């Protein structure tokens, strides 16, 4: 896949030090990064820092005669896939909102036609000033995405809004902006993720090793593709704030919530590792040990996927199957028993396909086909699922 180019504009503000981490992270994610700084930004951070982190010459002056031809403002504007300004000062927000281009950063920004993102960071009173707010609204109207600043203790020792958004939030906004074809727009997608937890007593429980990484990755893809996403989950993974997250613990809680959301969804993707059994009598008090063995009575949980398969109307349903043997046969039997449209199957014994990894090795088992995929990131598995869905529409 072609390496994507991110142009990072840096303006004069103390939050510029955080942009060093952002540039470093983007480089590690294999983006080609080119930094443009304003003259004021150079008062806070030396261009050399960004040159070292981005492996590219930093642009400051539009008329620098030492520049190679292909880093002038027009060629940078042309090769950029996403243009982000972080931090963006009130001054540069004002300039852009009013069409002023008087340096390398603002001229390049104006010349680019790719998706643009602005991350304001400044003192709270400046941010709340109606002039700045009007300018931000104007930028939104022009289709420029704003990554809101966050609240906290500012460098000026005031407490309030104005801190630069966290690096992972900014990176997610870049990943989101990279996807221009939002083909899931207006679709409601319901996804489950993580392990359910069945209580034994107030202290103990039965669960499994699922971390929720797969389901959260699918939810992230769906959100990037423009869908309205609801994620019913039990996970410690970071979930994008644009995803409607519902936290649950037990299989029955997951069932109740899926049932509530199911009618309004277009797609259900059951990536959660739902317990097949629950404790029949949860002890109100902590169980005390004695010298005898202990037998716990387990009873079956409701099979959520099967319930949805039996009650589906317009919805398409995707289930998961984690197997250790007879992968395809077991997946095919789940597909028909649970009336699914697709089963995403993987073998727990395959390298890179287990719990808590960032990768998965999956086989799609549909009604008419079996498609084996190579080892890929869980995010890419998510995209493959939606490509499959799109082809079947
Ligand atoms: N599932 C569910 N409700 C349950 C159990 C599982 O919705 N109570 C869903 C899972 O989210 C997953 C799929 O069903 O999408 C897994 O199928 P399942 O037959 O339950 O697989 P296993 O739990 O591995 O059970 P087994 O292989 O023993 O049949």
Task: Please give a handful of descriptors for the protein shown.
393 residues; alpha/beta; Rossmann fold; eight-stranded mixed β-sheet; five-stranded parallel β-sheet; 23% strand; elongated; binds cytidine-5'-triphosphate
Tell me what you see in this structure.
Helix content is 34%, strand content 23%. It folds into two domains: 5-177, Rossmann fold; 188-392, CoaB-like (Rossmann fold, 3-Layer(aba) Sandwich), CATH 3.40.50.10300. The protein has helices at residues 16-28, 41-44, 47-54, 73-79, 90-97, 104-111, 124-128, 130-141, 167-178, 213-224, 251-262, 304-311, 327-337, 378-392, and strands spanning 5-10, 32-37, 82-88, 116-120, 145-146, 150-153, 159-163, 188-194, 198-199, 205-206, 228-234, 244-247, 267-270, 277-279, 298-300, 316-323, 342-347, 359-360, 363-366, 370-372, 376-377. Strand 1, helix 1 and strand 2 (32-37) form a beta-alpha-beta unit. The strands form six sheets. Strands 12-11-8-13-16-17-19-20 form an eight-stranded mixed sheet, sandwiched between helices. Strands 2-1-3-4-5 form a five-stranded parallel sheet, with helices on both faces. It is built from 14 helices and 21 strands. Helix 1 runs parallel beside helix 3. With 393 residues, the chain is α/β, with parallel strands linked by helices. The structure holds cytidine-5'-triphosphate.
């Amino acid at each position: 896949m072609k390496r994507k180019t991110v142009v990072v504009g840096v303006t004069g503000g103390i939050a510029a030090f955080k942009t060093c981490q952002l540039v470093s992270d983007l480089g590690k994610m294999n983006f080609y990064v080119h930094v443009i700084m304003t003259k004021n930004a150079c008062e806070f951070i030396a261009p050399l820092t960004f040159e070292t982190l981005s492996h590219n010459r930093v642009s400051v002056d539009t008329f620098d005669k030492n520049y190679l031809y292909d880093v002038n403002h027009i060629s940078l504007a042309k090769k950029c896939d996403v243009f982000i300004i972080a931090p963006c000062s009130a001054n540069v927000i004002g300039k852009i909102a009013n069409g002023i281009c008087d340096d390398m950063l603002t001229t390049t920004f104006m010349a680019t036609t790719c998706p643009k993102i602005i991350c304001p960071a400044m003192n709270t009173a400046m941010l709340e000033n109606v002039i700045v707010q009007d300018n931000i609204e104007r930028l939104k109207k022009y289709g420029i995405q704003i990554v809101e600043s966050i609240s906290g203790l500012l460098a000026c020792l005031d407490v309030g809004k104005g801190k630069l958004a966290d690096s992972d939030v900014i990176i997610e906004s870049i990943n989101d902006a990279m996807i221009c074809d939002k083909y899931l727009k207006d679709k409601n997608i319901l996804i489950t993720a993580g392990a359910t937890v069945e209580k034994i007593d107030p202290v103990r429980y039965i669960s499994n090793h699922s971390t929720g990484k797969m389901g959260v990755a699918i939810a992230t893809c769906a959100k990037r593709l423009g869908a309205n996403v609801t994620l019913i989950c039990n996970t410690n993974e970071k979930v994008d704030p644009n995803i409607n997250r519902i936290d649950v613990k037990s299989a029955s809680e997951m069932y109740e919530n899926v049932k509530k959301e199911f009618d309004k969804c277009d797609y259900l993707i059951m990536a959660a590792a739902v317990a097949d059994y629950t404790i029949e009598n949860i002890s109100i008090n902590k169980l005390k040990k004695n010298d005898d063995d202990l037998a716990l009575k387990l009873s079956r949980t409701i099979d959520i996927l099967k319930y949805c398969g039996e009650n589906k109307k317009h919805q398409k349903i995707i289930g998961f199957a984690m197997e250790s043997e007879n992968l395809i046969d077991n997946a095919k039997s789940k597909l028909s028993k649970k009336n699914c449209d697709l089963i995403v199957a993987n073998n727990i014994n395959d390298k890179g396909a287990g719990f808590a990894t960032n990768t998965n090795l999956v086989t799609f088992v549909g009604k008419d086909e079996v498609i084996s995929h190579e080892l890929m990131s869980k995010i890419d598995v998510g995209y493959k699922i939606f490509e499959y869905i799109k082809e079947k529409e």
